[in-house]
């Protein structure tokens, strides 16, 4: 029996029951991540009232998780390229489950900030690891589509937390909402306990027989009669860690992805963390702002599905560019329209395209890096979004209170600049994952 590369074996096994179950397991993770991260936006008005915080102090609370995510993305991305996707993921989920739940019991703003910081540290590693692991089990055909479908679970988490906020916060306060999102992470930990290690990582780490066992399991679950051949080791990588992202072959991808993640992070988190506040500034009550947040979450679902189709039809780069540009246009429209219908319609279209852009970016980024630095690449790219999110959440409440139109103009322009940066990326559709 001749040898074969992991890519070839994964392609021959194809997409089946194993990948569908993995998509569900990773998707539940993604939904819980969204709920944990966005819950603070719905909780913030109550937090401010309970602890007597001004706009600047509220910004510290909102930004704490993003500071933790920045630290976590850079730390866990590099660590997972050394200890494995599965082990790294389990540790990150445990951290954000424990401290996410602890946030609900914080006796003061200082304790809440500390708990959110620690939860963000785990969350910052879980997000990029989820996509790296999923991408490495997918055959080349339609890989982008299934990565976008994984990202679509973010809309489910967004919708769940918006509905939970609508049902819980007005009558019961913010603590049950944060407790619920933290407890969901423990469910994720249990669901993910049976997910195997990535065979790509195992081969790259010099453990080819373990990789063959994992691939044989995938073939059995998919009902494919296929004997996994000996696996070829990838060509040695000259370096690992963040320095490897700047070798000549990867430098362009790194700058493009860092720029895109930085700009989309600024625009998206500025808009969606403060969405209830923005609707209040537009003249709506907090209860009505929660209702509209549910509508915007629903608008994300067709955005994801459209992006899932287009990343295979058009490609990753054109889909990303178009969705980012449209996000910018509708954000600017959201800033200037004044009727209730026009405000909600512009916001829905903004949500549709913004989340589709995220989906395309999450499909695009892991395909741009080889196995031994894939989670490092994802981790550091996502760290750029956390830098932007930290800045915008620290200053967002003050900026929005000072000039809502100016804040929305900044967010819309950031989307447009991200589209320009993305146009310099190298298309990855149909290309094998780099070993």
Automatic annotation (TrEMBL):
It is a multi-pass membrane protein. It comes from the Bacteria. Keywords: Membrane, Transmembrane, Transmembrane helix, Transport. The keyword Transport applies. Residues 22-430 form the Major facilitator superfamily (MFS) profile domain. The chain crosses the membrane at residues 22-46, 58-76, 88-107, 113-134, 146-168, 174-191, 260-280, 292-311, 318-337, 343-365, 377-401, 407-426. It holds the Pfam family Sugar_tr. Coiled coil: none annotated. This is MFS transporter. It comes from Solirubrobacter deserti.
């Amino acid at each position: 029996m001749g040898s074969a590369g992991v890519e070839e074996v994964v392609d021959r096994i194809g997409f089946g029951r194993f990948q569908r179950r993995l998509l569900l397991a990773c998707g539940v993770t993604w939904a819980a991540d969204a709920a944990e991260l966005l819950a603070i936006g719905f909780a913030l008005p109550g937090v401010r009232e309970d602890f007597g915080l001004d706009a600047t102090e509220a910004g510290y609370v909102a930004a704490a998780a993003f500071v933790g995510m920045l630290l976590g993305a850079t730390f866990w991305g590099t660590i997972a390229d050394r200890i494995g996707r599965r082990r790294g993921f389990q540790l990150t989920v445990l951290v954000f489950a424990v401290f996410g739940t602890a946030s609900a019991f914080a006796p003061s703003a200082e304790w809440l900030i500390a708990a959110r910081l620690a939860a963000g540290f785990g969350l910052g590693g879980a997000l990029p690891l989820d996509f790296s692991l999923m991408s490495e089990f997918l055959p080349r055909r339609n890989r982008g589509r299934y990565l976008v479908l994984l990202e679509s679970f973010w809309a489910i988490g967004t919708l769940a937390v918006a509905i939970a906020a609508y049902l819980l916060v007005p009558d019961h306060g913010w603590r049950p909402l944060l407790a619920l999102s933290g407890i969901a992470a423990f469910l994720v930990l249990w669901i993910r306990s049976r997910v195997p290690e990535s065979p790509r990582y195992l081969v790259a780490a010099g453990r080819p027989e373990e990789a063959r066992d994992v691939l044989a399991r995938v073939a059995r679950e998919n009902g494919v009669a296929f004997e996994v051949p000996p696996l070829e080791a990838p060509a040695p990588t000259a370096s690992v860690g963040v320095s490897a992202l700047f070798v000549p072959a990867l430098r362009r991808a790194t700058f493009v992805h860092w720029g895109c993640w930085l700009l989309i992070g600024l625009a998206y988190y500025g808009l969606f963390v403060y969405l209830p506040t923005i609707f209040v500034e537009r003249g709506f009550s907090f209860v009505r702002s929660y209702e509209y947040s549910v509508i915007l979450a629903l608008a994300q679902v067709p955005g994801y599905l459209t992006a899932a189709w287009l990343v295979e039809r058009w490609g990753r780069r054109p889909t990303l560019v178009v969705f980012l540009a449209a996000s910018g246009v509708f954000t600017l429209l959201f800033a200037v329209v004044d009727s209730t219908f026009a405000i909600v319609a512009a916001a829905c279209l903004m949500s549709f395209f913004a989340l589709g852009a995220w989906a395309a970016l999450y499909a695009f980024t892991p395909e741009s890096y080889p196995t031994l630095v894939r989670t490092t690449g994802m981790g550091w790219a996502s760290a750029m979004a956390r830098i932007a999110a930290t800045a915008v959440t620290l200053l967002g409440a003050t900026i929005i209170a000072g000039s809502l139109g100016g804040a929305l103009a900044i967010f819309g322009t950031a989307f447009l600049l991200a589209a320009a940066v993305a146009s310099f990326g190298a298309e990855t559709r149909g290309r094998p994952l780099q070993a």
